[in-house]
From TrEMBL:
This is FAD/NAD(P)-binding domain-containing protein. The lineage of its organism: Eukaryota, Fungi, Fungi incertae sedis, Zoopagomycota, Kickxellomycotina. It comes from Smittium megazygosporum. GO terms for molecular function: electron-transferring-flavoprotein dehydrogenase activity; flavin adenine dinucleotide binding. Residues 106-402 form the FAD/NAD(P)-binding domain. Keywords: FAD, Flavoprotein, Oxidoreductase. InterPro entries: FAD/NAD-bd_sf, FAD/NAD-binding_dom.
Length: 497
């Protein structure tokens, strides 16, 4: 018999009475988990992991309507959710299905790019087979958007921006589901292709979507490469170009275009009095601004361009008139929308938000506390670009946040001897990397009332760490090499990224 979410068959057990007692010895010796019992509603003596995560308040089962037509995800067996038994032991702040209590902790990750992959790697290393990781990621190759503008300048580099995912796991019991999360409850996630995947801990690492060309065209690599080809050819042919938005993306593109002398006239429209934003020191903003002006860039500052409501403003590439709020009007052959990303968080709308507002209304970024838990949800984390922590969103930050959450889960598992639920175990605080981040976390935490005083790990400002002043990077080759390495490949590209 196969366990519902495990690939391997279970070893035969000699003494069934030892089943619960031996869980952690069994796991720490890195064997396959015990098979559990098919009839999951049967009440049994809680084992240590159950004690750790707390016991059920309700043995709520899914209504048949709710589950109709959906499949429970299982890498090895394809069976209807009707045979699935939801969590037996739950608490307000943590639940572990009986399946998991008999095996490893089920950690579900939404999004398999920088944040999700660093998290997976670190967690595998820390917890080994004590966790069962499932990643939900629609793409089979991840798109390295940080170097998207290098492919606008040279489309031949675009083929290197797609990194295969197949070598991501060290342990074969972990798996990836190539689909999109469409709905999240506090017990399970539903995917676009009809799977229902239960979790004990959920990590949302679904990032954000930037305007074209910094996003994939659908899920199609060939089409996305064709878009880069188009941008490359038409940028070279264009005389006038406008970049709308002079934040880090717009500034990076401007620096690249001016260096390559891609067009005769380049204008940047930015809604602040200086290029970039408050995440960068004023001296650096001045420096970059002077550089752009000295290289021939025209700046329209403290003004906003009016974007026509197209699906992808600026694409298909064609000549357009651009008008601004202050009444300026000019014609350009090509327009780049660099107005910033929108978070990929739609799937959270089914979570109960009556007590806490968990999503920033304008752009959909997820509100988290210092532990990177979604406000009001102890066992759901949001890491990387998708959370609403202000400051510069970068791969390094995604990695730091991944590490924080992985250590929290590691600690939860290791506190197995304490008669306690997760709400009594101190999670790890993310080392806050700038003042803007501090302010956003502080605001988020105002809304979150912690019942357990042990959660108070001191003053929030004690968590601030000093980081180097940020700069705009136009050389991405080392980042790209690292991403390939993370995914088990050697980067062999020879272009200028
Ligand atoms: C032009 C540009 C230049 C940049 N330059 C740099 C730089 O020089 N250095 C640097 O460190 N950073 C840079 N960045 C930022 C960096 O790219 C991000 O910080 C990083 O990609 C964040 O990683 P992430 O995993 O949080 O999110 P993402 O990279 O956005 O990945 C999210 C993943 O989640 C998946 N996903 C989305 N929705 C769902 C769903 N519903 N279900 C399942 N999966 C889903 C997506 O397919 C994707 O794979 C740059 C970004 C841009 C746009």
């Amino acid at each position: 018999m196969k366990f519902d979410d495990q690939c391997a068959s279970f070893p035969a057990k000699k003494n069934s009475n030892k089943k619960e007692e031996s869980l952690f010895e069994f796991l720490s010796s890195e064997n396959s988990p015990s098979p559990g019992n098919g009839s999951n509603f049967r009440k049994k003596k809680p084992n240590r992991l159950e004690k750790l995560f707390g016991k059920s308040k309700s043995n709520k089962s899914l209504g048949s309507k709710e589950i109709e037509g959906r499949m429970e995800y299982s890498p090895s067996i394809n069976r209807s959710v009707m045979s699935y038994v939801p969590s037996v032991y739950t608490s307000q702040s943590g639940n572990v299905s009986e399946h998991t209590s008999m095996a490893s902790l089920k950690v579900l990750v939404i999004g398999g790019s920088a944040a999700g992959l660093y998290f997976t790697k670190i967690l595998e290393k820390l917890c080994k087979k004590r966790v069962k990781i499932t990643i939900i990621e629609p793409n089979t190759k991840i798109f390295f958007k940080s170097a998207a503008f290098s492919s606008v300048m040279d489309y031949t580099t675009s083929k290197d921006l797609f990194i295969p995912l197949e070598k991501i796991f060290h342990y074969s019991h972990n798996s990836i589901v190539h689909s999109k999360a469409v709905s999240v409850t506090d017990e399970y996630v539903e995917t676009e292709d009809g799977k229902t995947i239960y979790y004990d801990v959920l990590v949302v690492a679904s990032g954000s979507t930037y305007p074209i060309p910094c996003k994939m065209e659908g899920r199609d690599i060939i089409q996305t490469e064709a878009v880069f080809n188009d941008y490359f050819k038409k940028t070279i042919a264009a005389k006038n170009a406008v970049i709308i938005g002079g934040g880090p993306c717009g500034t990076e593109l401007a620096l690249r275009m001016l260096k390559e002398k891609a067009v005769e006239n380049l204008t940047i429209v930015h809604d602040e009095p200086m290029l970039l934003n408050e995440n960068y020191p004023e001296s650096y903003r001045n420096k970059i601004q002077s550089k752009i002006i000295s290289q021939g860039g025209n700046l329209i500052l403290s003004d906003t361009a009016k974007l026509s409501p197209e699906k992808d403003y600026g694409y298909p590439i064609k000549g357009r008139w651009v008008s601004t709020e202050s009444g300026k009007m000019f014609f350009t052959d090509i327009q780049f929308n660099c107005t910033g990303p929108i978070a990929n968080s739609d799937f959270l709308k089914h979570l109960d938000q009556s007590k806490h507002k968990i999503i920033d209304s304008e752009k959909g970024f997820i509100r988290v506390n210092r532990y990177l838990q979604i406000i009001g949800y102890d066992k759901i984390f949001a890491i990387g670009d998708v959370n609403n922590i202000n400051g510069i969103k970068s791969i390094q930050r995604a990695k730091d946040q991944a590490e924080t959450v992985a250590y929290t889960i590691f600690t939860w598992i290791n506190k197995k001897n304490e008669e306690t639920t997760i709400s009594h175990i101190q999670p790890k605080t993310w080392p806050i990397d700038c003042n803007q981040a501090y302010i956003s976390i502080k605001n988020n935490e105002f809304d979150e009332v912690k019942i357990d005083p042990k959660y108070d790990s001191g003053l929030l400002n004690e968590a601030i760490v000093k980081k180097n002043a940020p700069e705009i990077q136009t050389r991405k080759v080392d980042l790209l090499k690292n991403q390939y390495k993370l995914m088990g490949f050697v980067f062999k590209g020879a272009g200028s990224y």
